[in-house]
Each structure stands twice: as structure tokens, then as C-alpha cells.
Amino acid sequence: MRERSAAVLEGAQGAPRVAPDAAWFTRSPQEVALGLLDAHVRAKSADGAVTVRLSEVEAYGGADDPGSHAFRGRTARNAAMFGPPGHVYVYFTYGMHWCANLVTGPDGEASAVLLRAGEVVEGVELARTRRPTSRTDRDLASGPARLANALGIRGGHDGADALDPGGAVSLRVREVPAGGVAGGPRTGVSGDGGLARYPWRYRLEGDPTVSRYRAA
DNA sequence: CTCGAGATGGCCT
DNA sequence: GGCCATCTCGAGT
Which of residues 57-96 of A touch strand C (CB under 7 A)? Predict the structure, then answer.
């Protein structure tokens, strides 16, 4: 199945990026996901800071979403998803990789947006040292685990408050949403319902840094 | 550029 | 014990 495209970055070009507050994240994961496109995610550590401009994200619901880690209820692993909005939810997958999400919706309800891909716009040299296998800079954060790795986000960041501008992870979102982005197929939802029922994967169409891994 | 296969460990049933 | 919200590498077009 081929994906359809849509307009890109209309109105957002030149719009300032601002630090979001809790209310900004207290919305549906789909709304937040669209708002996060073209946002800056910054992570600082003792080594320095890396900032990624997001080009691809994916929304996850809670008990109503079979593709969500929270589908079967709260566990120690997914506890951050049930916590306050604007915090980081980090999980370990495939025995190797960390992936970073931002929690959405009211405290106590589980939903989040997975950060799938982006472009490193600050700290490229540090990101290269963390991702020595990247052949080109566009691959530094072109995938969920690649992005988390480039930012230096690991399990220790689980639950971190991304609304604190001075925190280890901080955000600046477009004052005018990038908008006009197609919903692509999701991973993790088998069968024909994947795209039809949960078209919650969003990207900046034509952006060279989007992940090349697309669900079958 | 694309495709296919293997690695690898925590979580959930 | 099976299942992954994946990545890298090698080989083929």
C-alpha cells in the first residue's frame, strides 16, 4: 500500500518556537503529535547538548488502543504513561534499543507520542560520537531508537519533566503548527485495522530525515 | 537505492 | 515461551 502525501509546513515557516506548558500536552495524543512536528527537542548531559528537529511522530492511546503499551493496563514499565503530561516516557525494546515518548492527556490517563525521527540541529558532533554507525548525518536520528540514542536518552530519563526549560530534556514547539501532514501506517497493529482505524503516524512529507522503516 | 536476516533481553501471559 | 513501537550489515538491482 502506498502512502498519500499532503502539504507541508504551511504557515509554520518562520513561526517562532515556544516552550509548551502542561495545558499544551493535556490534549489528545493525535493533536499533540501534530503540534510536535517541526518542534525542537533538546537533551543535555555532561557531554553537552543535542537538539533534534522532529520530522516524524506517532500517537498512542491507552486502554482503547491495541497498539499501546498501556492497552493492558498499568505496569511498572509503562507507569510514566499514566503520569502527568509533558513528561518523558522511555522504554527498552528488542533487547537493544531505547525509545522516547512524551506523555499526553490528563494525569492518570495513559497516552503518549513516540518520537520517531528528526534532524540533528545542535550538537551534531556529539550525536556522531553516539551514533558511529551513521553513514550520513541524516541517519543520526532517522528512527525512534536512533533519535533517542542521538539525544543520549536512556532508561534514566523515564519520567523526566520535559516542561522544565532547565531540565535534562526540554522542548520548543512551533507557535503555529506545521500542519498538513499525512497520517501513515502504524507499526504494532496487525491486520487491516492498522491504518484504517489508527492512522496516527505523522511526518513532515518529503523531509529527508523521516525514518525509512514503514509498517508492511 | 532496495531487500532479507540475525541479534538480543525485558516484559507479559 | 512468545512477543516485540528496531537497527545494522551484506548482497542484489
Answer: 58, 60, 67-70, 81, 91, 93-96
Q: Is the shortest CB-to-strand distance from A209 to strand B under 7 Å?
A: no
d(CA A165, CA A73): 31
**In tens digits, what is the pLDDT along chain A, a chain of 216 residues?**
333 333 344 455 668 999 999 999 999 998 999 999 999 999 999 999 999 999 989 899 888 888 889 988 899 899 999 999 999 999 999 888 999 999 999 999 999 999 999 999 999 999 999 999 998 899 999 999 999 999 999 999 999 999 999 999 999 999 887 765 666 655 555 444 444 445 588 888 767 777 654 433
H-helix segments, A4-115: 22-25, 29-36
Residue A215 lies in a domain: no
Cell numbers linked to A87: 513528561
Any strand C atom closer than 7 Å to A146 CB: yes
Does the CB of A115 fall within 7 Å of any strand C atom? no
Residue at minimum CA to C1' distance from nucleotide B13: A72
- Listed as ranges, the nucleotides of chain C within 7 A of a protein C-beta are 4-9
> What CATH number is given to the structural domain containing A117?
3.10.300.10
Range of the domain at A76: 17-203
Side chain identity at residue A80, one-letter code: A
